[in-house]
Amino acid sequence: MRLEGKTAVITGGAGGIGRATAFLFAEHGANVVIGDADQEAGEKTAAAVREKGFSCLFIHTDAAKAEDIERLMNGAVSAYGGLHILFNNAGVSNQSVKLHDMEEMEWDRVVDINLKGVFLGMKYAVPHMKQSGGGSIINTSSVLGIKGKKRMAPYNASKAGVIALTKNAALDYGKDGIRVNAIAPGVIDTAIVDEWRNDERRWGIYTTSNALGRIGQPEEIAKAVLFLASDDASYVTAAALLADGGTITF
Ligand SMILES: NC(=O)c1ccc[n+]([C@@H]2O[C@H](COP(=O)([O-])OP(=O)(O)OC[C@H]3O[C@@H](n4cnc5c(N)ncnc54)[C@H](O)[C@@H]3O)[C@@H](O)[C@H]2O)c1
């Protein structure tokens, strides 16, 4: 029980990595509040966590909208009396085209969710965390926030931005007892990589081009996020923790 008595907000918690983290945080004693744009999946995940006897709430949230994020943080505090952990995890991939063919709207959509969403999450969580005596924020970047990939301009740029923003916030709020770190997963078996599954050749390359020779599971990222969220990481801040099976060195 590493998060006993803590309240944790998870954006993008309805599916994939966020969902696995919701279960793990709850198993470790946290009250979990899921904010996700997918109402049906969000309600289902929250109900599944509660069915295991844990405390979990769903609040419909578009991570790119300030009013939604503000409502999410306020909702968590009114339900549980404080806010200690934010997993800023909602994210989307982009349409696979080169930069000169990228529609401006597509750029804005991806950057708004992946990068502005992380800014908004921190902006509205930090005042509550200060009132709660400090906390831990984990922002989801990617191995693609460190290395490039063809036809992934807004994704690459937004995930690199998440790492820079993480360092900024760690410096701004360290003395308030708030640690801020990024998690940088490699290829993980979730819906976000579904578009690659039908192409056997690409799927084979993407899922095995790392030191371990296999795709990662959402539960493996959740465990790294739990470490960053917990007091075990009490001297870890401003870090970007790679959980990529060694993709970066491959
Ligand atoms: N799976 C991977 O290979 C991989 C690798 C590196 C980083 N990531 C990052 O991990 C995070 C989680 O992705 P995942 O792999 O679990 O994919 P996923 O598609 O399973 O989960 C993403 C979740 O975010 C939600 N979401 C999307 N847009 C939203 C919005 N505007 N507001 C609120 N919620 C929204 C979705 O409904 C979904 O529940 C993302 O930030 C993603 O970029 C994933």
Protein described:
The protein is globular and about 50 Å long. A seven-stranded parallel sheet has the order 3-2-1-4-5-6-7, with helices on both faces. By secondary structure, the protein is of the alpha/beta class. Helix 3 packs parallel to helix 4. The protein contains eight helices and seven strands, in the order E-H-E-H-E-H-E-H-E-H-E-H-H-H-E. It binds nicotinamide-adenine-dinucleotide (NAD).
Structural key phrases:
250 residues; alpha/beta; Rossmann fold; 46% helix; 15% strand; binds nicotinamide-adenine-dinucleotide; oxidoreductase; SDR_fam
Give a concise summary.
The chain has 250 residues and is of the alpha/beta class.
What's the SSE blueprint?
Blueprint: E1 7-11, H1 16-27, E2 31-36, H2 39-51, E3 56-60, H3 66-80, E4 85-88, H4 104-131, E5 135-140, H5 153-173, E6 178-185, H6 194-197, H7 200-208, H8 218-229, E7 240-243
Helix pairs in contact: 1-8, 3-4, 4-5
The structure holds nicotinamide-adenine-dinucleotide (NAD).
Residues 11-12, 14-18, 36-38, 41, 61-64, 89-92, 113, 140, 142, 185, 187-188, 190-193 line the site of nicotinamide-adenine-dinucleotide.
Beta fraction of the residues? 15-25%
Secondary-structure content class = alpha/beta
What percent of residues adopt helix (DSSP H or I)? 40-55%
Distance between the termini: 36 Å
What kind of sheet is the major sheet?
7 strands, parallel
Which small molecules are bound? nicotinamide-adenine-dinucleotide
Q: Summarize the helix and strand pattern as letters.
A: EHEHEHEHEHEHHHE
CATH A-level architecture:
3-Layer(aba) Sandwich
Low-confidence segments, given as residue ranges, are none
CATH fold category name: Rossmann fold
Strand order of the largest sheet: 3-2-1-4-5-6-7
CATH class: Alpha Beta
Q: Give the overall average pLDDT.
A: 98
- What would you give as the CATH superfamily? NAD(P)-binding Rossmann-like Domain
